Amino acid sequence: MDPNVTFKGTALIVDDDPMLRSLLRVILREEGWAVTGEAANGEQAIAQCKEQRPDVVCLDVMMPGMSGLEVLGVLRQEVPGSKVVMITSDASMLTVREAVGHGAAGYIVKPFNAKRVGDALEKAMRQGMTGEGSSAV
To answer: Domain limits of the chain?
Structure first.
């Protein structure tokens, strides 16, 4: 992390695509986030989230095995208060509504850039403090 960047919190990256995890890792670090871990599937995500209690979880919607929405549901039950930002290429309003309905704090549509990722995570953190609604970026 750049010493000139303000620390914003800790993040867990969950995506089955190693290239996307790598890209997110770089973006998050540049934006001031400490990446506490990475997971390639839902089971790993749940285990790491329980153990690490990151401030924000970046969670892909479409993964083999457990979908991101299923993982979100488990996190709501087993790690209450976790802030989850969904990441996907599906920008349909149905998917956005479903993610928000399951408790997502935000939503990022692929392709994304550093600003969109940073904005979504910062909004998710503010939501936890102020009760703001979920948002799509």
So the answer is: 9-129
